[in-house]
Amino acid sequence: MKVTIKSKRQIRLQNILFVLLFLLVVGLLAWLSQRYQYQADWTANNRNTLSAASVSVLEQMPEQIMVSAFTVDSGAMRQHIADLLGRYQRYKKSLEFEFINPDTEPDKVRQLGITMDGELLLEYQGRSEQVTVLNEQAITNALQRLSRAAERWIVFVEGHGERSPFGKANHDLQVWAQQLEAKGFHLQGLNLATAALVPDNASILVIAGPQVNLLPGEVKLIEEYIARGGNLLWLADPDGMFGLEPLAEQLGINFEPGVIVDPTAQMFSINDPTFAIVGDYGLHPVVDGFEMLTIFPRAAGVTVEPQGQWQADNFLFTTERSWSEAGVLAGEIGFDELEDVAGPLSLAAAMTRSLDSESTADEAAEEKQQRILVVGDGDFLSNAYLGNGGNLDLGMNMVNWLSRDDQLIAVPTKTALDSSLNLSRTASMLIGFGFLVLLPLILLLSGLTIWLKRRKA
User: ω before 246 within 30° of 0 (cis)?
Assistant: First the structure.
């Protein structure tokens, strides 16, 4: 192409237009980056993204959440807190946070009882919670406690050898109780022999496997509590009802004789035949979306014939290979068609009935629902077995349903899958041999080869 003055001008004009358009695109991208944000989490299990549990809690908090972070660190600590709270802000724009230097506001620090650098103060609807551990679990637990408008009391019947929420023995419930307290519940023991009635502010009454008979007067107090519309969690064991027969008759509850035997447990290296494996959960809000296996040691089958206005649903079904063994659990155990009950068996029954609100002045008063859960095993929530499978999540779902916090049910806990690297002994030896012997040998041979070539040249 012949270069002329006109062609030079055209090329110069094209170059100017290209530069202007390029600068315009860069400016437009910069403007868009200020108005819109996009982030991608490529970690295993998306552990740098807010979990479903936290999102569910935020959805139940429509009003503004204020977070105050007390720290003197203007570097890494402050950046860590900002990144952590930023995950919550992406799902709730009305969450605001500020940094406060304890050195410049000592009076406020003393008034609020701040004791640690990096401590957070969460405020919602006039209530506040302090967080000293800077991770999502601690913050979400605090938000969940704030989301509960009223105090939730869980009352445990005691005085008959029941599993204690404050006991450290393997059969007790202390670990589960600590998880309940972290979620904002208050726990209390109740000896019915000395109490005039079950407290009216009890959200849930728990009967956790008594070992001696309850007195008729104590059972009557439980029946009166249920008649008043109270919610009940009955963790029964196959050893007997220990004086609770009238309560079972009132509710229409029947326990299959014997202990459930499940050969499926051997697939999980469990040699005890009295361990029942549950992977079939039926259709009920307690187990909606629940997919983890749960383990029930020494359990009894539960059936229900609803009485009066009660409605019932069975869930937690054992495998078809299981059965309820009515004989002695010793030696070689086999199914007896004449005495034993064939599986699959139901381990739990959920009962509900409608209660008309007594409040007539409040136009927003709605019909309330009374809820009862009867489980044929208490070991699955004990200190010894709570960590097996999905036992903990199932136990929390039960309490959330009984306390009418259905929105917090079936939200799995997110864990980091790639936080550690596990290598076999062979792989470790190969890597060690490669770095300590093979790689230095390759470098040595390369250097020697280059030296010989240069010497010959």
Answer: no
